[in-house]
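Why do we care about 3D structure at all? Because function follows from shape, and shape follows, mostly, from sequence. That is the central idea of this module. The next example makes it concrete: a single protein chain, its amino acid sequence, and then its structure expressed as tokens.
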Amino acid sequence: MQRPTQVTLAVLLLLGMGLAAAPARADVVTDWNLKANELIVEAKLGTPPAMRALAIVHTAVYEAANAVTKRYPAGALNLDAAPGASLDAAVAAANRVTLLKLLPTVQPAIDAAYQAALAKVADGPAKAAGITVGEQAAAAVLAVAAEDRANAAEAYRPHTTPGAYVPTVVPAIPQWGQRKPWVLSSPAQFRPGPPPALNSELWARDYNEIKAIGGKNSTQRTAEQTEIARFWDYSAPPIYHAVVRSVASQPGRDPTRNARLFMAATQASDDALIAIMDAKYHYNFWRPMTAIRNGDTDGNDATERDASWTPFIDTPMHPEYPCAHCVLSSAVGTVLQAEVGSAAMPVLSTSSPTAKGATRSWTNTADFMQEVALARIYDGVHYRNSTVVGSAIGKQVGELTAAKHLKRSD
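And the structure:
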């Protein structure tokens, strides 16, 4: 996963404007999803904190919307029903309160969006009631999130021998795998087995594949593979939420159903990153750049060292195994497949600032998930086995989340 700060602010703001490839706006929930993603970009959050923030926001939005419409049974927060309250006001208030708490650096933009949204709602009891239920939902979800240990003290210990130099940059969020999940019973619920043994044929296969096609100066990576690699160098929520909006913006959907879908997709994404960080720091497996520059030390005669090898993109600052991009795409894709069921999947599309705003589309979730997995090999940052394992974890998280939130009661 790459952090948003690694891409120029100007391009990121272009993404925040709504991702040109995203479907037309459908309702108040998707309108606010676009705005929340804009604000996430403006606040410059890294991918995991941004995924957590949007899970909190969309959980509050769903609870508020459902309290107004009673479309589905009451959620875990068991908010009082608010018949006659303004749905638009409730959604706006839920967004405002959660975003102000999570993104205080962009308070003026949050307040401006809120006032613009409320200006479209007629004054009166319905508006006031909507604001009240939105604020109640936000406060309740924020209270739950305050206990998730996201702010636990970071205590990463570099592995070294006394007196020997090691790079002094602290890896990304080593405490993330200790958080309390939304749906998982524990961060380690789907922890996989270990990565391949270094003396195995599987290790040699993955090592030589990524060495050949994942290097910065690879002559074997095709032009199409290079474009895919460049596209998925970006991992922040906007690139995934545009894919969710491909479904949410279809005809015949209503705001509460979309609120439920975004809640499921964001909780699955957040839990997927908790699960993957648990596994990453448990196994602490080396990245391709480290492995290939030390290929003469792994005890495998089939892995030849390249002393100057570098990956196509900058290596993310956390352990390799398993693939985090893969767990995100698979969790989101699995939730979308559960939402659509046996109906035809609409065309899924999104754009990427790391590919100069280019758009890519897929006609099914399997192709979308597979492309993301392959991109990380082409990028030179993940071995093939790691992408398979990461995708499998994402599917498990997505299925568990869908079973909890997307049971068809409509």
